[in-house]
Write the structure tokens for this entry.
Amino acid sequence: MVSAMVDVADVQGNILQGYRHPRVRHLILSVGDAAEARAWLGATVSGAGGVPQVTSQAPWDEKPSTCFNIGLTFEGLRALGTASQSLASFPTEFVEGMTARALKLGDIGDSAPERWPAPFDKPRDIHVIVSVHAKEVADLDRVQRQALQNARTFRLLGVREGFNFHGDYVHFGYHDNISQPRFAEIHDPEDYPDPQEMAPLGTVLLGYPNNFEGLLWHVPDPVELGHNGTFNAFRILAQDVVGFENYLTEAAKYLLTQAGVDELLPPGAETKIGAGLSREAALREIVAAQMCGRWRNGVPLAVSPDTPDPATPIPEKQLNNFDYAANSSCPYSSHIRRTNPRDAQIVQRVANNSRRLVRRGIPYGPPYDPAKPDGVEAPERGLLGNFIGASLGAQFEAMCTDWVNVGLQDPRVTGSNDPLIGANAPETGWFDVVLKSGRTFRLRSLPRFVRSRGGAYTFLPSVSAIRYLGSLGK
Ligand code: HEM
């Protein structure tokens, strides 16, 4: 990846392009000794003294077996001794931190920060989140040992680890990681046909033009600290797989009682949804597809409304090649249409492409096997999500607040939440299953399937910024 617009060797890796390593370990750290921590940061630029070297977005001939990246919270920047004038130049939402923004993110009730387990119950102690990507656990262990070789530098507050299920599937059984913003000069438009606008670099990096004419996100001071950096919402999102699958069954049973269900699933069309499926099982899959906007195998409803297995199979690279025409078969309320309305008319018109987020997520916890149901103490499972963009407020928070949790983008869904990830409650939650004629079946008593179990807003500094922080006080 070579670009005339940006020195990619100065940008931390996994931002402009994903690593696609099967394993990730996040080390959640508190600064023990500020001077040692600064020296450690400086050493990560070159890998001096056996400290792991930070991985940049510089092109590689051969994929490294491990990658190593650093995120800093506002408290972390402060603990490292960043000048107060510089601290004051960071955006408010980052300064306040994720827990203070709970209402905007739907972190209420069971998901409220007061319910988060350690170390997320003491957000001010969280200073640094180191992310190690690798194929093997032994490599994660080795890099962790190298990173934490000096016990005085950091206190290890907690560890969160995830691993990729075969084929990029996530809990709930969907194929994920298909749609990502692509950046001019970084991605080859021929390689992955996608009719969406290329995202300007300023969508994800500080210091470049974004979608808003005449508006640049403020680059924190000094410029060597802010330029080429970006912000990340690190989220630990527990998924209630059993609750989700049970709801699909309830919804299918309900739909079977409705006159007009044949319009949704013409008799005999069950085999189009899956070989050997009963009517109820086929309806379950239709509801799952409408909630996401994609069939569980990743095929978009907008392209293939009647079957996840079209007669002419859709190649992997074509799975993102669609827009939302006026009569698209993708429900307005579905997860992917809410989080990226593409070309669809929305209430906040200039916002269509301005909230594109780079998503780097990986499942954690054991896959759910219906043949071996969980015991009484069900293990926690979910997604370790990273939602990256140049403005947490105008992108991630705006998406969570008015698109995911209110549905402001389209009056037909306003007042409802995202069916998959929204802060739903059975008393108020609903989702409209859409028929070809435009009629809808309203599913009610929609519970919350995804709960927040921790997280932090981090700044992902450029390589120059890491060097700069390492030199503070010298
Ligand atoms: C456990 C939680 C989540 C699950 C299981 C989940 C699942 C999915 C799936 C299956 C897709 C479709 C695959 C693709 O298009 O790449 C998707 C897309 C997407 N999700 Fe999520 N997601 C979760 C949380 C979130 C959150 C918290 C956000 C942001 C607030 C988000 C934003 C997006 C975006 C922007 C897309 C791409 C839409 C597009 O470009 O068409 N997701 N997600």
User: Anything to note?
Assistant: The longest strand covers residues 450-460. The CA atoms of residues 160 and 284 lie 32 Å apart. The chain has two domains: 8-238+455-470, 239-355+393-453.
